[in-house]
UniProtKB/TrEMBL annotation:
Name of the molecule in the record: Cell division protein ZapA
A Gene Ontology biological process term: septin ring assembly
Keywords in alphabetical order: Cell cycle, Cell division, Cytoplasm, Septation
One Pfam match: ZapA
Length: 112
């Protein structure tokens, strides 16, 4: 949301854990979805604990969200590495096959 066009910035009112927040951004629906996700996570954390302190619930929810993000980043890196490794392997095999084809064609020329 750093490079917002001032004309497209909208004011959005969201509720997170029974608190109202007035936010600004260029995609009200997206902001609402994010707020809903945070609210859901806070309520889930609160339902599993005995604390009623909203700050403590918010910090625990943030830690849960950070853990989910870190897990997704690790998965992404593993997939990216796997794709790069596969791509490199395919290039190596193509180079080897190209060399073999050149050798076969050279032999054909010698015989023919």
């Amino acid at each position: 949301m750093a490079d917002q066009n001032p004309e497209s910035v909208q004011s959005v009112t969201v509720a997170i854990y029974d608190q109202t927040y007035h936010l600004r951004g260029d995609d009200a629906a997206y902001i609402q979805r994010l707020a809903d996700m945070v609210d859901d996570k806070m309520r889930l954390v609160a339902s599993h604990g005995k604390t009623v302190d909203s700050l403590r619930v918010a910090v625990l929810a943030a830690l849960n969200i950070a853990d989910e993000l870190a897990t997704l980043e690790r998965r992404y890196q593993a997939l990216t590495g796997s794709v790069q490794q596969t791509s490199s392997s395919i290039r190596d095999r193509a180079h080897t096959l190209s060399g073999l084809l050149d050798a076969v064609l050279e032999d054909e020329r010698k015989l023919g």
